Amino acid sequence: MRVAVAGGTGLVGKLVVEAVRDTGAEPVVLARAAGVDLTTGQGLGRSLTGVERVIDVSNIATMSRSRSAAFFEAATSRLLRAGETAGVTHHVALSIVGVDRVDLGYYAGKRRQEDLVRAGQVPYSVLRATQFHEFAAQMLARGGPFVPVPRMLCRPVAAAEVARALVDLALAEPVGAAPELAGPEEREMVGMVRQLQRARGGRRPVVPVRLPGRVGGQLVGGALLPDGPGPRGTTTFDAWVADSGAAGSARP
What we know:
Largest sheet: 6 strands, parallel
Order of helices and strands: EHEHEHEHEHEEHEEHEHH
Distance between the termini: 46 Å
Structural class: alpha/beta
Strand order of the largest sheet: 2-1-3-4-5-8
Radius of gyration: 18 Å
Strand content: 15-25%
């Protein structure tokens, strides 16, 4: 079986490609590095030849509502149309727990993505997952004399566990809205970043930032937590830091 991975060169995408390969299926990477531009459709039809399943973990790094919405509108629409033409039997999209409860600009694009997938002609599954352990490392990787971190209550999950869940979904029958995937424990993002920096030997001040207005209250108040039962990852943030997180480097 050929399984296409949209965004297969990103953080989660690389893990999904690896997880697909572990099942014995053939991963097909859809990314600019592989000659495919999701927003224009360049190379997309050719790459989907013989593909039965699509896993979409494509992404854009922005907090702009308009940029996020424009990206997911273009990329998702083209991916769904090309998938329908190619005979794809299952389209799986990764989304975010609480995406419909938090008013961040980026989330507007993710909501549009979900709407397009639900309205498309290809049978689908949407998996909403909580924030990754790896987000703490991404915040530390930013330059500057200090590390600004938004105050937010979350239930972090290892990206590798999300990748495996996506592949398991893709190889099964479409379910529509899949049960939300979250990590094993509630954590505060500021504390996670501080813990990871200590493990890496960094010394920059970690500065908590409460986002203004309603969004700040939503993040602090637990709007990113799952509100029902569902699968839970097993890797705690402590275990992730000890096993792999501390292997990175912290800017001094």
